[in-house]
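Minimal example, chain plus N-(5'-phosphopyridoxyl)-D-alanine.
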Amino acid sequence: MPELAYLNGEIMPIDEARVPIEDRGYQFADAVYEYLASYNGRLFALEAHLDRLEHSLGALAFPALDRNHIRNAILTLHKRAAIARSGIYLQISRGVAPRNHPFPVQAAPQIVMTVRQLHPTPPEYLRDGIRAITVTDSRWSRCDIKTVQLLPNVMAKQRALEAGAQDAIFVSPDGVVREGTASNLFIHAGGRLHTHPLTPAILAGITRAVLIDSCRKQAITVEERFFDLHELMAADEVVLTGTVTEVLPVTQIDGQAIGNGRPGPAAEMLRTQLEALAAGP
Ligand code: PDD
């Protein structure tokens, strides 16, 4: 069950994989990524991740890549690693070229991946929920594109840890609640789930999408609409969702308890749905 790297078609140990220093991902953050996971040796929502990758590549005017080629690369690496609960990180940069802002004429996209063991969420996070802080969203206006320019996310996460919290929630300068540093956000209020609509201000999370779909199939209403900081703090429950996060209750924000300060039934319901989906048909 080795953790492995993939570098433009070759599979090798992670510490042997090297990328040239003039890779545009390294110099300009001119690269997109995906992060997908397997449950019990089966990749979760692979086609949805490929759809989003195509969206990111298209939005940045990367040359069209062969979807079958990328799918096969992911499947090959995943099979070779044979890790039951793995996380696959895939990054595609615009290529390697002497540093110059315009798109290089000759460079070919660089495709790199790693596959690693994914560790379970600490049980106390599920039992007690996590603490979060709010931070002003200073990201660019195209958060729907999954680029590697993640400094605002990195800074926000670090600020959360230094404040004794586990994560940060981005809130726009005018008070609209967006998402977590690597997760989408739902609130449960007035007996219903609510989450930010799909706009360029957030990432179209795959976990978000599969959960909304699953809820609607069971006649559970999910409203995709904007809500502000005031509604967030007054919610009965706040829940983060993502490939690594899965479904995580947030029970304290900026030092204030959410609802009764304990994980609630909405978080439990969403987690059960995700577990059922991950277990497969
Ligand atoms: N991030 N929003 C942001 C800003 C994210 O970075 C992520 C995922 C999500 C959730 O998307 P999904 O459900 O498709 O994982 C939402 C990955 C896991 C990461 O950066 O590691």
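Helices lie at 24-28, 46-59, 67-81, 123-128, 151-162, 206-217, 229-234, 265-279. The chain has two domains: 4-117, 123-279.
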